[in-house]
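Shift notes (night). Ran Exo-alpha-sialidase while the centrifuge was going.
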Amino acid sequence: MVIIASGCESKKAETTAEPSFTLMPTDTFRFNHFVDCNMASAWVGDTFRIFPGKYGEDPVWGHALDLKYAEGVSPDEVFSTPTSQYKAPKMPLNAPTGEPGLHGAVWFESVYQDSNDPSGKTLYALYHNENYPETLPFNPKTGEGYIDKNWPLGLTDRITPAAVPRIGIMKSRDGGKSWENRGIILEDLQDRMILKPFNTSKTFAGGVGDPSAVASGDYLYIFYGEYGYPGKFDEKKYDPQKEWAGQCISVARIALKDLDAPYGKVSRWNGTDFSASWNGIGQPISALQISKDQGGGPASSPKGGFHWGPSVSWNTYLNAWVMLMGHVQGQSWVGDKVYISFNTELNLANATNKWTKPRLLVHKPGRTLWYPSLQPLNDKQQIQERYTSMKLGKVARLFYKFADEGRYLSEYTIQFDLTITK
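Came back to this:
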């Protein structure tokens, strides 16, 4: 935010430069590979890489080996890569049921590049991890896992269980060609799952997921969707208003020095500071919640309205953080809008309550829009600046997924400006 003073000393007028944007239609830019997550991108030396897809065990949708990477010397080259030219990284294997290790399926949603490694090859991937009572049965000794009782229905048209997301970290030492699992860093436990007969949304049983992570100061800030009940779920005391109050887009953080051993090191925002535990109850970012009179509601309701799937980047032109988010307005993640919010506070430690009220960015009536992200253009300066999905400038390309068709594409670029207001 820029403060400009003018006029005589006795009558000073103050104006502010607020972030604004203009959508500019383009020819449709179609992506060629499977996408079911935020699009993580990074520069490794002179090579631009993206990491879409899904990997791991999934008893509902089937085992997946679609988490792959594409690379090239420019963003457009990489986003145009044919599916046949994607490469499969070496991934950790799923552990047997009931044993410690990686369970369920994972999606890479955000990639942080270690600034202490001059080669650029040290990467940390924040992953969205989904499980079911079948893949992660409840362990009374640890409190981890889920009990298959009164379990809500999931997304498919078949009678299948709802998934539960968690968030974890993997590390690569070779620029994303191979990965080692560092474990789960954020999760909601069984007693916060929202069960039958109340959970009829065909989304999740609860949990945390769809993360987007950016570095600020000495911390990695993780923005994510909160889908659990803010307390112990008790069907006799269930309160939809209480559920709504604890949901939407939330934030947590971890010190960069703890990324190699992250277990138990993440702290959630509790409404005042970052002191809620990694598997405890935090608070959502209040400015991003949808009020009841504007169609907001709990995630377990088929009529609940909430923002989800944040994608956060630092904008060098605005000197501000930019967040894109989806909007759920019906059962099974149905929603035809994408929203945008800004935060002009450089240090995110002091900025959780300073996100602007989300503004409508894209509306495609009758469609279902998922996973909006901003990506760099095939511009010489943007390539020199090594722009990625986490760092962008005055103009960026907007991608999203038409979930009803399974297509990931771009129909617009977005130009950012600073609008002077009094």
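The first helix runs from residue 75 to 79. Residues 226 and 279 are 12 Å apart (CA to CA).
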